[in-house]
From TrEMBL:
Keywords: ATP-binding, Kinase, Membrane, Nucleotide-binding, Phosphoprotein, Transferase, Transmembrane, Transmembrane helix. One of its GO terms (molecular function) is protein histidine kinase activity. SUPFAM superfamilies: PYP-like sensor domain (PAS domain) (SSF55785). Residues 201-248 form the Signal transduction histidine kinase HWE region domain. Residues 1-22 are annotated as: Disordered. Its EC number is 2.7.13.3. It holds the Pfam family HWE_HK. This is histidine kinase.
Length: 250
């Protein structure tokens, strides 16, 4: 009987290193990472909201300050004669009235609360409008103060003379700004016209008197002694004075 086969020898243990297992984060690590990311996102969002909130607060503060300044200016303008205004000329040449006090409606006889800017545009005569455009162009070019006088028509058809004086200054963007005042110069203008008329009348009468005296001199004989010449001229002048008294007395 044959002997049983000998068992195969066992394989020698391998000395090669086992393959590394991939690292898998634990659930706690994942939660910590998510919490950290969420915290960073919340911090960034809060910082952004904080900056936006500060910017909004600054804009609101500026708007409130501008509104308060305009209110104070309106209160001051209400106690001043005439009207205050601000004109802005853009680099493209467009002219905008950014402020006009209520005094303009008072000057032009417009109802209280009406648009003062629209009121002055309606009241300007074509001649005054043309002169104003030329004066503004000159002031913007030379940066010299604006001084202008012109006539306007009020809501009830009256003719008024307005005089304006405005300071001028440029802005960094190339715009030009005028801050000025409009005053009613009608009485002054009428007084000047009366003074001019009176001066012309006085000049006319003086020339008439000179002509009369010259006529008397020509009518008085000159080939007589000086005493007789003076007496004759004096008599003629006295006669003219008596005639004037009779005419003036009625």
């Amino acid at each position: 009987m044959a002997a049983p086969a000998a068992p195969a020898p066992a394989p020698a243990p391998s000395t090669a290193p086992a393959p590394a297992q991939p690292w898998q984060p634990s659930r706690l690590t994942m939660l910590a990472t998510m919490a950290l990311s969420l915290g960073l996102m919340l911090a960034l969002l809060l910082a952004c909201r904080t900056r936006q909130g500060r910017a909004a607060q600054q804009r609101l503060a500026r708007a409130l300050a501008e509104r308060e300044a305009e209110r104070r200016l309106t209160d001051i303008a209400a106690n001043l004669p005439g009207a205050l205004y601000r004109l802005v000329r853009a680099p493209c040449g467009r002219l905008t009235c950014t402020y006009m006090s209520e005094g303009m409606n008072t000057l032009l006889g417009e109802p209280s609360g009406s648009s003062a800017r629209a009121s002055i545009l309606r009241a300007l005569t074509p001649e005054t409008r043309a002169r104003a455009e030329a004066a503004l162009q000159h002031s913007a070019t030379t940066l010299t103060p604006l001084v202008l006088e012109g006539d306007v028509r009020t809501a009830d058809g009256r003719r008024l003379w307005l005089r304006t004086m405005a300071s001028v200054h440029p802005l960094p963007d190339g715009s030009v700004v005028w801050d000025g005042v409009l005053l009613d110069s009608t009485e002054q203008r009428q007084a000047e016209e009366r003074a001019t008329l009176l001066a012309r009348e006085v000049d006319h009468r003086a020339k008439n008197i000179m002509a009369v005296v010259r006529s008397l001199l020509l009518l008085t004989p000159r080939d007589v002694p000086p005493a007789q010449f003076v007496a004759s001229l004096d008599g003629r002048l006295c006669a003219m004075a008596r005639a004037h008294d009779l005419l003036a007395g009625g």
